[in-house]
Amino acid sequence: MKRVVLMRPSGPRNVGTVARVCLNFGPCELRLVSPERKSLLVHPDFEQMAHGVKEIEKLCVIVPDLRTALEGCTHAVGFTGRTHDDRTRVDWRDHQAGLAERASDPEELVALVFGNEAMGLEKADAALCHELVHIRTAAEHTSLNLAMTVGIVLSDLYTDSGFRTRERGFRPIRGEAREYLKANLKHVFGEKVARTPAARRDILASIERVFSRAEIEDRDARAWHLMLRALGSTLTPLDIGLPPAVPRARHRHLADRAKAQGRPKKKD
User: Fold this and answer.
1) Helix, strand, coil shares of the chain as percentages rounded to 5?
2) What is the pLDDT of residue 163?
3) Residue-level pLDDT at 109
4) CA distance linking residue 96 with residue 76, whole number of Å
5) Exposure of 73 in the CB half-sphere (CA atoms within 13 A)
6) Scanning 74, 78, 153, 261, which has the fewest C-beta atoms within 10 Å of its C-beta?
7) What is the CA radius of gyration of the chain?
8) pLDDT: is 57 or 252 the higher one?
9) 66-75, 137-146, 250-259: which is most confident
């Protein structure tokens, strides 16, 4: 389990973003130590950045000090870009895998402590952390935004399988189907839409140039043919000397199964 601790945060946009990130890469608790703005959780900027986060008061628990924020935690990691006396800071990239394993242990509650936007993690707060970690950056700009830092850390620690919207596989149009689509487009826009010979030449050249090169899927072609049919086209592959379209394996399987069951072929 993970608990994000923000020390005296001042930016409502940062805190709102962190609240969303805690849900993106949860389960994750959030503690705000003495926010500089008492109205932070009702600020319009917070509400905008935390859009979609339910039960804000339950997630964003405000506490008076770091000791209270660390209650119940088995391990505390402070993130800082500053050196603190003789304490050694661990490189995040070297430490990430081990901490991810620890944070995924149900017997552990790992606190991830982040300092104020302006002052960073102060010495007294760093002293309460078991270890300090820093994230290497380019030399040109070494300061990381608070919300961005929390997002990087929680994303790296996230070990669940996660949610991903199912995506339709890309099915490119086949050669003969592409030629039929181009012919149908030329038939409608070149013969029925163009008003002058010059316009017809430009239209035909544009269709040839664009639709010969573009990445077109089967569904794109179907959509174009539907539009062309609505414009009055009755052109078929046979009309231009092409064989009729052969259904893909999946469609053939559905057609064969429907035929065997005595039902009409399912439309795509």
Assistant:
1) 45, 15, 40
2) 62
3) 95
4) 14
5) 25
6) 261
7) 30
8) 57
9) 66-75
**Residue 30, beta-bridge partner list:** 4, 60
pLDDT digits (tens, 9 = 90+) for 105-121: 989 999 999 999 988 89
CA atoms within 13 A on the CB side of 241: 0
Paired strand residues for 71 = none
Q: How far is CA 79 from CA 67, 70, 115, 155, in A?
A: 16, 15, 7, 15
Q: Where are the domains of the chain?
A: 2-157, 175-260
Task: Name the 3-class secondary structure at 268.
Answer: coil
Of 77, 100, 98, residue with least CA distance to 89: 77
How far is 97 from 202, CA to CA, in rounded Å? 59
pTM: 0.62
Cα distance between residue 95 and residue 263, in whole Å: 61
Domain 2-157 has CATH 3.40.1280.10: yes
| Cα-based angle 83, 87, 93 (whole degrees, multiple of 5) | 75
With beta carbons less than 8 A apart as the criterion, state whether 142 and 82 touch. no
3-class secondary structure, 62 = strand
What is d(CA 79, CA 30) in angstroms, rounded to the nearest whole number? Answer: 15
Q: Buried b / exposed e across 241-253, counting CB within 10 Å, b at 16+? A: eeeeeeeeeeeee
Write out the two tokens for 262: 């005595």
* Model pLDDT, residue 83: 75
The stretch 65-91 carries a mean pLDDT of 89
The single residue listed with the structure tokens 């950045």 is 49
Beta strands in the chain (DSSP E): 2-7, 28-33, 60-63, 75-79, 89-91, 110-114, 131-134
